[in-house]
Amino acid sequence: MTSILSDADMDLIFRDARTHNAWQDKPVPEVTLRAVYHLMRYGPTSANGSPARLKFLVSDAAKQRLKSSLSEGNLAKTMAAPVVAIVAYDLKFYEKMPQLFPHEPDAKNWFSDPDVAQITAFRNSTLQGAYLIIAARSLGLDCGPMSGFDNEALDAEFFPDGRIKSNFLCNIGFGDPSGLFERSPRLDFDEACEIL
């Protein structure tokens, strides 16, 4: 039987974890960002396609490049975050299928239709972004995932060749609890689920 996480672990990842809006002035070491990625990469994706591409913005210069694409409400908290992760997706992720799905030589061709490739890349990079949050929280980091930015402006700045597209942003670091809002309600099981 598979073992399960402890209550303390589930609190860390889900129940007590919050979306942070304020940050302690404490850097996140590169070794920790690498550890986050090494955990998140094990989450499942369609045919192991792994379309997510990440940029971890840690320098002031990198964050300044992001600034003009942010909405006003996300500007201050994002500039203050120790790390801003751009969660993006590679429209030609399937080119790595021979490496990632070697037992099926034709897998690359499953995504030859650009519409199929785009929706697959977007869906699975969203999944990988969720794995990023879980991995970061499991390593003691706090997260602030968000939309609220101009995708086209961001892509022109960070992905000018058009092959990679931004999905969402995730501020990462050590949260300052003073910036937390009251936890918003969640739907009960019967409001969101049906067992058939």
Layout: helices, strands, pairs:
Elements: H1 7-15, H2 30-40, E1 52-57, H3 60-67, H4 72-80, E2 83-90, H5 97-100, H6 114-138, E3 142-146, H7 151-158, E4 164-173, H8 189-192
Antiparallel strand pairs: 1-2, 2-4, 3-4
Descriptors for this entry?
single chain, globular, four-stranded antiparallel β-sheet, 8 helices, 196 residues, NADH Oxidase, alpha+beta
Give a structural overview.
This protein has 196 residues and is α+β, with helices and mostly antiparallel strands. The protein has one domain (24-159, 167-176): NADH Oxidase (3-Layer(aba) Sandwich), CATH 3.40.109.10. Helix content is 40%, strand content 15%. The protein has helices spanning 7-15, 30-40, 60-67, 72-80, 97-100, 114-138, 151-158, 189-192; strands at 52-57, 83-90, 142-146, 164-173. It has a 4-stranded antiparallel sheet with strand order 1-2-4-3, with helices on both faces. The longest helix has 25 residues, at 114-138. The radius of gyration is 18 Å and the shape is globular. The two termini are 26 Å apart. The model has no long low-confidence stretch (mean pLDDT 96).
